[in-house]
Every structure is written in C-alpha cells, then in structure tokens.
C-alpha cells in the first residue's frame, strides 16, 4: 500500500511538464514528507504474519517488531513460528525469547532441528538445563550462531580445563576467551584465572592493550603470576587509572613509607592499593597518631588497611588498651597479629583471661554494636 502510493506520487510529479527541469519546486517533494523508516520496509511488511507473531506471541511493540523484521529480511513466517514454538517447547519464557530476538534477530532464520537442537542438547549435557539454560541463552543468543564443532565444543573444553566444572564451563561469556588464553600463555595459573572469573570477570573484559600493560607492570614489580596474590594485583591495577595509582602512592609516601616499603606492601597484599584515599588516611592516622605505631609496621602488615575500622580495628584496640592497663598483654605477642587474627581466634584468646573475659567481651561487644 505504501509502495503503491509512492509510485502514484512519482507519476504525478513526472506528469507536471510545466515545471522546468532545473527550476526549484514550488513545494517540497512528497517523498520527503514520508517517514524514512517506511522506506526500508518491504511491501505489505506491516501486515506480515512475521510481524503479527512478534507482536501477539512475544509481546513486541509494533515499532520494535517492525525493526526486527527490517533486520531479519525474510518473509518465511512459518520458520519464524517454528523457532518460537521450538524455544517455548523447551521451557523458554516469552521474555527470554524476546530478549534473544532483540539481541540476535537472525535466530529466527535458524532451522530448529538442524541448527538449534544440537547446540542446546550439548549445553544441556553439560549441566545447563531448565531455567539456567533459558537465562544463559537469552543473555548470550549469539552463541547459537556459532559452529558447534568448530567453536562451542573447543571453547567449552578450554573453559573446562580452567574451571574444572562442566556446568560452570558452559556459562562464561565467550568474549573473554582470548584474554583468558593470553593470561595462560603469559604464565598466569589456571587457579588465578578461575578465581578472577569467580570474583570479578569484568577485568577479563579489558582491552588487550590494557591487559598487556598490566602484565608488564606487575612482572616488573616482581609479582609471580602463579601465586594467589597475583589475581588481586591484576584486579587492583586494571580497576585503577594511572593518576589514581600515583595519587595513592604519593599518599603512602606522605605517611612515611619508602618506595621499597610501598612495593613490598603491594607484593604482600595488593588490595592495599584498592582502598580509597580516605580509608588510607583514616587507618594510617589511627595506627600512627592514636596507637603510636611506626608507619613501617603497617607496611609490613598491609592487610590492616583493608579491614573495617569500626567493626574490627577500633573494638580490638579498646580490648588491647584494657589488657595493657591490667598488665595482662604478653609483651612478646605480636601487636599486628592481634588485629589480623580471625574472629574465632580472637574470641578464643580472650577466653584465656578467665576472670576478666566477661568484662573484656562486654567492652568489645559494646563497641561493635555502636550505631555508625
């Protein structure tokens, strides 16, 4: 209907022989008044069965369905219906199918039994079933475009060697495979890569240039890619801009750390560079100004910078103050260890002071329960 109207308009314009060829038209051409989105639509597409299926079966708005039809470039509504029925028959919700079609419209051109079924069966055999399968495919539908033999199975096997779990290996974002291989090729242990995937896989989405620079910097600092601290170092460096790194390093130097102490602290516990500058100032001020510690002692135990001041450090400091006032704290005992030990170990230590233990616990719990 739209196309035929355009043809009539063009004929009408060509019949006005009284208008000179090179003279400006006395009014804008009618074609310019027609919304451009209709120019890419096939004749009768607005009334096509495919568009109706998208609207009525999957809940697309007419505008969104029209956009999908334009990208799909097929009038084979029978195959489109078969694809929708195929996914619904396997427990996919309308929302999940709509998400898949929006992200990857070409999925509606796939042959259900020949192209789609073998891939879903493979993923299902590795533990992705029911809601898990629907959630994964709706988020990563482009995987169904990939070859089962040349891409899906080889990448699954690669992930399997890293994660040592069929179900977990079936679900990572396929975009990070090249970066994972790069880390492996450069000496990063499988356990570190698996930990990165578990803790924060966003760092594995970094550009190759940024990842390469991070690896260069960390190796120059002497960090071993096979040690568990390397994963934390990589996260710290990749999450931070160069200016932020330099600002925090300057702050530590202002508190009295030498370059050697700064490097040593980062090697021991890289997350000391991930805390905010405000947190660095508050922790250093507490230990140096209030507790009277040497700054180098904190550099020897950088984990203290990442612990909660309010929920761990200050309550234990009050207990330590009480023990000193009663001359009960053993002089040979490590002060840093007193703040670093686990909650269980800390409570067991307090229990040794049988007569004073109830009072110590009261001090500790009162400080822990204060509103912040």
From TrEMBL:
SMART domains: Mterf (SM00733)
Keywords: Transcription, Transcription regulation, Transcription termination, Transit peptide
InterPro entries tied to this protein: MTERF, MTERF_sf
GO molecular function: nucleic acid binding
GO biological process, one term: DNA-templated transcription termination
The keyword Transcription belongs to this UniProt entry's keyword annotation: yes
Family statement: Belongs to the mTERF family.
Descriptive protein name: Uncharacterized protein LOC116215733
Organism annotation: Punica granatum (Pomegranate)
């Amino acid at each position: 209907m739209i196309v035929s109207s355009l043809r009539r308009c063009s004929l009408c314009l060509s019949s006005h022989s009284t208008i000179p060829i090179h003279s400006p038209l006395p009014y804008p051409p009618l074609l310019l008044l027609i919304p451009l989105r209709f120019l890419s639509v096939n004749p009768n597409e607005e009334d096509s069965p495919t568009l109706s299926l998208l609207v009525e079966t999957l809940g697309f708005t007419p505008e969104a369905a029209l956009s999908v039809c334009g990208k799909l470039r097929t009038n084979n509504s029978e195959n489109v219906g078969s694809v929708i029925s195929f996914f619904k028959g396997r427990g996919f919700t309308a929302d999940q199918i709509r998400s898949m079609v929006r992200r990857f419209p070409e999925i509606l051109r796939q042959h259900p039994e020949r192209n789609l079924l073998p891939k879903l069966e493979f993923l299902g055999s590795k533990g992705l079933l029911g809601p898990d399968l629907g959630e994964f495919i709706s988020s990563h539908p482009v995987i169904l475009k990939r070859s089962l033999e040349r891409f899906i199975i080889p990448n699954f096997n690669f992930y399997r060697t890293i994660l040592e779990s069929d179900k977990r290996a079936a679900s990572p974002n396929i975009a990070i495979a090249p970066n994972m291989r790069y880390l492996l090729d450069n000496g990063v242990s499988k356990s570190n890569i698996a930990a990165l995937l578990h803790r924060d896989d966003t760092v594995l989405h970094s550009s190759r240039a940024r990842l390469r620079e991070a690896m260069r910097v960390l190796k120059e600092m002497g960090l071993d890619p096979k040690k568990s601290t390397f994963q934390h170092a990589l996260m710290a460096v990749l999450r931070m801009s160069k200016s932020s790194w330099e600002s925090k390093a300057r702050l530590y130097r202002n508190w009295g750390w030498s370059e050697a102490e700064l490097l040593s602290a980062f090697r021991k516990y890289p997350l000391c560079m991930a805390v905010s500058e405000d947190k660095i100032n508050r922790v250093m001020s507490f230990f140096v100004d209030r507790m009277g510690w040497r700054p180098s002692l904190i550099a020897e135990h950088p984990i203290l910078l990442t612990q909660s001041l309010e929920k761990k450090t200050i309550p234990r400091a009050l207990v330590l103050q009480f023990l000193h006032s009663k001359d009960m704290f053993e002089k040979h005992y490590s002060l840093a260890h007193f703040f670093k030990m686990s909650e269980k170990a800390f409570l067991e230590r307090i229990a040794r002071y049988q007569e004073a233990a109830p009072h110590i616990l009261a001090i500790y719990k009162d400080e822990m329960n204060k509103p912040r």
